[in-house]
């Protein structure tokens, strides 16, 4: 046979000499490539950051410029008062201000104001009726976007669009301010930087905003960026286009989520590292050749005594070895150990795998992944008898971890410990191996007890013992769900479902209980009607940010729901409906659940609450209080805006029949709410304030003009001059004529 051990000596000698050389060569090439790539990436990233700062400085300057324009009274007048080209004074002043926005250093070529409410635009082309403008659909699409301001590219221009006014509903703005900027202004900011490769600036939707060089050649690579960046804010990666690889360096702006990228062919960066790699390769091959020659000569000298020993053992053996040996030492070792080695290994493996096999079979049984024939065949492996009178599925769940020394992350470990306790309390012949499934510790009890009452008492005694043992050892309370007795092991999945369904009734019955599904479902379930009146009081308290009343109404709501003894499904539906109605209040204020509560799902957190007390505490702390804080803040801001708007209407329209209902409709609020806010801010009702304002205007006209009393009454929208005279006498103690005469006498 071939001298196997000689080959092993030669192989190890070669490995000792060759492997360090190969590893050293690979590390050298890898380190040189990485060092070069790192320097290039750092340089590109630094220049990209400078480009980003230049562009963002331009963007912030433009936004600041528009903010100053919007803050002026002219903008408000143009939005609210200019209804046609007849308002020439305001339009002329507006045109002047729009031209002032066109800063050459910012690259602004046109500034356009769009009044969506009254249907006109004003820009470089002058005043245009919106319905006659070819850009009507584009303006309307801008108004429908959710952002209050945004940048976009259109043809060879960069547009900045800002909705007017910014404090109103973003879905239906009164107007738009649109600045057009030269595309070359952005390209200049890029080309001024000393950057390796080509540069592209993308918006948050990966649409091109600006580019320098032949960046269009990399359009196919830009399409891959969203997946390759994987949410990172800056970094580097290698991507392929056709047969060529490209090195991509990127950074993401925290200011507006734009992306700044540079593309460079990978071969341009790694030219020097490839030279180093070729030199290292040739040097390594030379050393490997010398090492191989020396290893062959040395191995022959070392192998000589081993060969003599092997030949001696073969001559002493009375029969040839049955199996083939890898080398001489393996041949000798096999002769000594072959008789008992396999037996020891097999016995150890069987002991280790039997427990895992039993657990796997039980898990397949619970998941309905085993047939009747396979179950009958493998039943002896479970170590239980093949016949029994009754089977009962048991599910054990932890009530809650609050107030214990454990955290949420310990839940699975606690379930594993509970399964071990179940295995200790019940003999192996009376149960299947406990498993953890669906946040429960599950097992099946086998019983020969025939009377149902005796079986019930037996299970209850065992369950009480288990609860006490878990409490003493682990320091947590558990509840136990028990299915109906059944006879066929294949019905275990349905029985486990019954056991977990029984645990849902902890909502009504509290924690630390033993729940039999047949007893629970035997009770007559009254209809669980939704307590609408209590809910209305609760919603009113939330609207008014009355925290004490909200907590009281929530407790009353949950008490009334539970008092009607609902099923778990009915209870969850009632709480879910309440939760939906409460969140509707949040949506009415213009906020979303994601903005207030974050990314987590409320319904998932709701299902984690075990008892009514847990639900009440969670709803009040995590849902109602945050919503009331938002509504309280929004209410204060709206009150100030509503009062200012009403005062403006009174000053501008006091001569006509101005009604609270009409003003409230124009502000998109209910009249009662508007009246309450106005009186709170001014101390007067709307009608009293309007009357007082008209009275002051009448007194001013009586002092400074020769208007007749009848004309003043008509101007102030009184039904008749007699009505005006009666009101004036009531408030001033004299008629309008007497007031005028007295004022004239005092002037004389």
Short description:
Among the domains are: 118 residues, Beta-Lactamase (2-Layer Sandwich); 74 residues, Profilin-like (3-Layer(aba) Sandwich); 172 residues, Alpha-Beta Plaits (2-Layer Sandwich), CATH 3.30.70; 111 residues, Arc Repressor Mutant, subunit A. The protein is built from 29 helices and 16 strands.
Defining key terms:
single chain; 748 residues; alpha+beta; Beta-Lactamase; Profilin-like; Alpha-Beta Plaits; 6-stranded antiparallel beta sheet; 5-stranded antiparallel beta sheet; 29 helices; 16 strands; 59% helix; flat
> What is the name of the CATH class of one domain?
Alpha Beta
- Termini separation comes to 144 Å
Number of DSSP helical runs: 29
Strand order of the largest sheet: 3-2-1-6-5-4
CATH architecture of one domain: 2-Layer Sandwich
Show unreliable segments: none
How is the CATH topology of one domain named?
Answer: Alpha-Beta Plaits
How big a fraction of the residues is strand?
5-15%
Q: Look at the structure and name the CATH superfamily of one domain.
A: Reverse transcriptase/Diguanylate cyclase domain
The level of helicity is 55-70%
Radius of gyration: 43 Å
Largest sheet, in brief, is:
6 strands, antiparallel
The count of DSSP E runs of length 2 or more, i.e. the number of strands, is 16
| Coarse shape | flat
| Class by SSE composition | alpha+beta
Description:
Among the domains are: 72-189, Beta-Lactamase, CATH 3.30.450; 196-269, 3-Layer(aba) Sandwich (Profilin-like); 351-522, Reverse transcriptase/Diguanylate cyclase domain (Alpha-Beta Plaits); 637-747, Arc Repressor Mutant, subunit A. The strands form three sheets. A six-stranded antiparallel beta sheet has the order 3-2-1-6-5-4, sandwiched between helices. Strands 8-7-11-10-9 form a five-stranded antiparallel beta sheet. A five-stranded mixed beta sheet has the order 13-14-12-15-16, with helices on both faces. A hairpin with a 6-residue loop joins β10 and β11 (259-265). The N and C termini lie far apart (144 Å). The chain is α+β, with helices and mostly antiparallel strands and 748 residues long. α2 (73-80) crosses α3 and α18 (532-543) packs antiparallel against α19. It contains 29 helices and 16 strands.
């Amino acid at each position: 046979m071939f001298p196997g051990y000689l080959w092993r000596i030669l192989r190890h000698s070669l490995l000792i000499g060759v492997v360090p050389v190969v590893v050293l060569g690979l590390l050298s090439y890898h380190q040189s490539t990485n060092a070069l790539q790192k320097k290039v990436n750092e340089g590109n990233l630094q220049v990209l950051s400078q480009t980003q700062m230049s562009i963002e400085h331009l963007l912030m300057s433009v936004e600041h410029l528009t903010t100053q324009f919007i803050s002026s009274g002219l903008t408000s007048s143009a939005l609210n008062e200019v209804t046609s080209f007849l308002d020439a004074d305001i339009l002329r002043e507006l045109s002047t201000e729009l031209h002032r926005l066109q800063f050459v250093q910012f690259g602004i070529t046109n500034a356009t104001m769009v009044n969506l409410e009254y249907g006109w635009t004003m820009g470089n082309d002058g005043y245009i009726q919106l319905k006659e403008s070819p850009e009507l659909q584009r303006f309307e699409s801008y108004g429908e976007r959710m952002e209050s301001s945004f940048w976009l590219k259109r043809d060879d221009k960069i547009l900045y669009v800002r909705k007017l006014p910014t404090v109103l509903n973003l879905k239906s703005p009164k107007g738009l301010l649109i600045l057009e900027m030269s595309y070359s202004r952005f390209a200049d900011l890029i080309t001024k930087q000393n950057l390796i490769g080509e540069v592209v600036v993308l918006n948050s939707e990966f649409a091109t905003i600006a580019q320098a060089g032949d960046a269009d050649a990399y359009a196919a690579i830009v399409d891959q960026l969203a997946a390759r960046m994987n949410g990172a804010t800056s970094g580097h990666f290698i991507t392929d286009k056709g047969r060529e690889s490209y090195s991509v360096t990127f950074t993401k702006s925290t200011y507006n989520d734009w992306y700044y990228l540079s593309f460079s062919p990978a071969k341009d960066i790694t030219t020097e590292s490839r030279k180093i790699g070729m030199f290292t390769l040739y040097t390594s091959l030379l050393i490997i050749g010398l090492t191989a020659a020396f290893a062959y000569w040395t191995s022959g000298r070392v192998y000589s005594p081993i060969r003599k020993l092997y030949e001696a053992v073969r001559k002493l053996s009375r029969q040839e070895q049955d199996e083939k040996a890898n080398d001489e030492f393996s041949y000798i070792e096999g002769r000594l150990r072959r008789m008992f080695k396999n037996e020891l290994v097999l016995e150890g493996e069987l002991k280790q795998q039997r427990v895992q096999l039993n657990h796997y079979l039980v898990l397949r049984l619970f998941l309905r992944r085993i047939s009747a024939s396979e179950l009958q065949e493998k039943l002896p492996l479970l170590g239980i008898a093949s016949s029994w009178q009754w089977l009962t599925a048991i599910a054990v769940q932890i009530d809650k971890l609050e107030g214990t020394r454990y955290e949420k992350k310990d839940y699975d470990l606690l379930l594993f410990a509970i399964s071990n306790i179940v295995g200790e309390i019940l003999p192996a012949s009376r149960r299947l191996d406990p498993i953890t499934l669906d946040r429960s510790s599950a097992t099946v009890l086998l019983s020969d007890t025939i009377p149902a009452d005796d079986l019930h008492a037996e299970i209850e005694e065992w369950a009480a013992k288990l609860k006490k043992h878990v409490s003493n050892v682990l320091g947590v309370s558990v509840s136990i769900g028990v299915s109906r007795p059944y006879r066929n092991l294949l019905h275990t999945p349905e029985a486990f479902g019954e056991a977990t369904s029984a645990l849902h009734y902890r909502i009504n019955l509290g924690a630390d209980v033993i729940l039999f599904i047949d007893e629970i479902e035997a009770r007559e379930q009254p209809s669980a009607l939704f307590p609408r009146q209590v809910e209305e009081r609760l919603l009113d308290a939330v609207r008014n940010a009355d925290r004490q009343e909200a907590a009281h109404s929530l407790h009353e709501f949950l008490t009334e729901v539970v008092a009607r003894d609902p099923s778990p499904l009915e209870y969850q539906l009632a709480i879910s409906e309440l939760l939906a109605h409460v969140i509707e209040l949040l949506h009415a204020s213009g906020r979303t659940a994601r903005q207030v509560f974050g990314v987590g799902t409320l319904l998932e957190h709701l299902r984690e609450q075990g008892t009514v007390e847990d639900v009440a505490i969670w709803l009040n702390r995590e849902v109602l209080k945050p919503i009331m804080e938002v509504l309280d803040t929004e209410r204060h801001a709206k009150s100030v805006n509503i009062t200012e708007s009403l005062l403006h209407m009174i000053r501008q329209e006091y001569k006509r029949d101005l009604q609270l209902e009409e003003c409230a409709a124009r502000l998109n609020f209910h009249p009662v709410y508007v009246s309450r806010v106005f009186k709170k801010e001014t101390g007067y009702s709307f009608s009293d304030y309007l009357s007082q304002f008209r009275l002051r205007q009448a007194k001013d006209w009586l002092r400074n003009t020769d208007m007749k009393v009848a004309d003043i009454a008509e101007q102030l929208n009184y039904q008749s001059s007699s009505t005006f005279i009666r009101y004036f006498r009531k408030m001033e103690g004299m008629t309008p004529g007497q007031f005028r005469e007295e004022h004239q006498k005092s002037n004389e």
